[in-house]
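User: I'm putting together a teaching handout on how sequence relates to shape, and I'd like one worked example. Could you take META domain-containing protein from Hymenobacter busanensis, show the sequence you're using, and then write out its predicted structure as tokens right after it?

Assistant: Happy to. First the sequence, then the structure tokens directly below it.
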Amino acid sequence: MLYVFLVPAYHFMLQRMSRFASLIASVLFTAMCCGGCRSTDSTTQASATTPTNARPPAPLDNTRWVLTKLGQQPVRTPDGSREQYLLLRQSESRVEGFAGCNTIFGQYQTPTTGELVFANMGATRMACPRLPEETRFLAALTATRSYRVVADTLRLYDAATTDQPVATFHAVYLR
């Protein structure tokens, strides 16, 4: 007699549990599907507003920065010459490069975000036709007090102005 009473109760409980399990499974499935639709990650939101081919800013350190402008004048590398560049080595706070005639070297500091100061700059002492341009390049480095990197472009600014760069560079990534 007890068996007759328990069998219907057992079937009733199984039906309730299967409905409850189905409900839980539906909620979990919906949450998993919709969870991928919404993101609070700022990098995901930023990529929705920027073109897909836009690159993040090149790092200041350990990037070969090729000189493209001194002040507002474009810099052209004559045939058979090496391009003028800077390379800031973060691990040693050292700067190295080529100024047009001579190899350059020295130290740099980034006291706060956006600030950049070159110090103890030196160069080899060879003469060449590009020496006046090299002198202007070294003067721009000495005058530098701040910088901005936008995508693959580095702009150096002196203490007097932040609207006209003293030098502009393009990133060449090291392999």
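A couple of points you could highlight for students: Residues 1-7, 27-52 have pLDDT under 50 and may be disordered. The first strand starts at residue 64 and ends at 70.
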